[in-house]
Amino acid sequence: MNTVGTICQRSVVTIDSDCCIQEAAQQMREHHVGALVVIADERSLGANASRVCGVITDRDLTLEALARGLDPQAITVGALISGKAVAVPEQASVSEAIAVMRQEGVRRVLVTGAQRQLSGILSLDDVMGALAEELGDLAESMRRGLARESLTRRPLEGDGAVPVQVPLEALARPWRAVAAMTAGA
Fold it and tell me: I need a labelling partner for 35 at 20 to 30 A (CA). Which of 47, 81, 156, 158 fits?
């Protein structure tokens, strides 16, 4: 199975915690993302250093700001984020990331490098894509196994095919008429 580092999105869009939420919405639209990593200057880390404060999502903007009628130019991103940022290391497995998402109740986790630097973001979409690909590979393996079997094993007697008819009533309503017409032809 893949590691988080192989399937996460490496292009992370950040926004300063002092920016208004209207700017956050504009950034999401411009970059075609559903979440921004919120950062703040951290003088203790050195010159031009920032630390992650959290993540703001399109869902946060909708449920916390728009639904409550907040002024999008008056509310800062930092005031809207809640909870803590959740992260996993690049070498974590997908199943470990899923467990963290479930435990923390989040749809996205930050991905960190060896020095805890931000190196990506992993969403449920990324996880679903990776799992779908693996399930597709598994299905293909099964198809090839059956094909190999059919080439290497002969039927015991005859071709083994026995005609079986499905009752007309078992067909979904739109297909009954088609089946009745085909049977009459």
Answer: 47
Q: What is the pLDDT of residues 113-131, one digit of tens each?
A: 999 999 999 999 999 999 9
Domains plus CATH for the chain? 4-130 (3.10.580.10)
Strand 118-123: give its sheet, edge to edge: 87-89, 108-112, 118-123
At residue 45, does pLDDT exceed 60?
Answer: no
Query: Whose CA is closest to 113, among 13, 5, 41?
Result: 5
Distance CA 145, CA 147 (A): 5
Pairing verdict, β 108-112 and 87-89:
parallel
CB neighbourhood size of 23 (10 A): 17
pLDDT: which is higher, 183 or 114: 114
pTM (two decimals): 0.73
